[in-house]
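Supplementary notes for students who missed Thursday's class. We covered one full example, reproduced here. Read the sequence, then the structure, then the short commentary at the end.
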Amino acid sequence: MIGDWRKSSHSGEESNCVEVGRGPDQVGVRDTKDRDGATLRFDTGTWNRFLRSLDERD
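Structure (token representation):
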């Protein structure tokens, strides 16, 4: 189960955001406007590679 949902502090109070949550072996991404809707799920290895690729762009 995915929990501990968080959104970026740069989002302020806006509702047009995504949240990221963590589970034992996965990470979830969901829309703050539809928290009960679909959740994109990634295994932690894939998520970590995604984050590293963002760092490499800077």
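Commentary. The two ends are 33 Å apart (CA to CA). The mean pLDDT is 91. If anything here is unclear, bring it to office hours.
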